[in-house]
Design goal:
The protein contains 6 helices and no strands. It has 183 residues and is mainly alpha-helical. The chain has one domain. The two termini are 31 Å apart. Keywords: Membrane, Transmembrane, Transmembrane helix.
């Protein structure tokens, strides 16, 4: 039976190793709590889901003349939302307790997300300028689109935010990590 050896000056004792492992586990738990606090409150998803439905469905029920005020109103609310998210009090009012540090966001994720947004914006502008007529009349298509998009935001908004935050980080959050000995 091998004898237990005495720790040298460079080797931690069993107590020190246990305390270090516990400290790393505590750090990992706090990091997980911070990542969980990055999402907005549920009511924000519901409000924007209902507003998305209302803006898209309004022309089907009130005529195309309402887009003259619904689209700018929705745009103003979206800009107000972004401005509030970038202030401490605004974020607290919207129920967002924490934000990811910019240094934690992967450069590749930032590049890909900007390119996707640029392509979508360009496609939207091109579609609006060209206004193609496909010759197919689908009644209440805007209302159907509003139900799908607004419903997705209401039902899956929080999950989508958490998934984006998780994929945006340089080191995706997992339940275990190499820091606390789990792979």
């Amino acid at each position: 039976m091998p004898e237990p050896h005495e720790p040298t000056a460079h080797e931690p004792t069993a107590d020190e190793a246990a305390r270090a492992a516990q400290a790393l586990q505590s750090i990992e738990q706090r990091r997980a709590q911070a990542h969980d606090g990055t999402g907005a409150a549920r009511w924000v998803d519901v409000v924007f889901g209902v507003l998305t439905f209302a803006v898209l469905a309004a022309p089907d029920f009130f005529g195309s003349g309402v887009t003259g005020w619904t689209t700018p109103a929705f745009s103003a609310l979206a800009v107000l939302y972004v401005v509030l998210l970038n202030t401490r009090r605004g974020s607290a009012m919207l129920g967002q307790r924490a934000r990811l540090r910019r240094s934690e966001i992967s450069g590749r994720f930032a590049l890909v997300s900007r390119l996707v947004l640029l392509v979508l914006a360009a496609a939207g502008i091109a579609f609006a300028l060209l206004q193609p007529d496909f010759g197919v009349h689908v009644p209440y298509w805007r209302t159907a689109l509003g139900v799908v998009l607004g419903g997705a935001l209401i039902l899956f908004g929080g999950r989508m935010q958490r998934a984006l935050a998780s994929s945006a980080t340089r080191e995706p959050h997992t339940t275990g990590s190499t820091l606390n000995g789990h792979i």
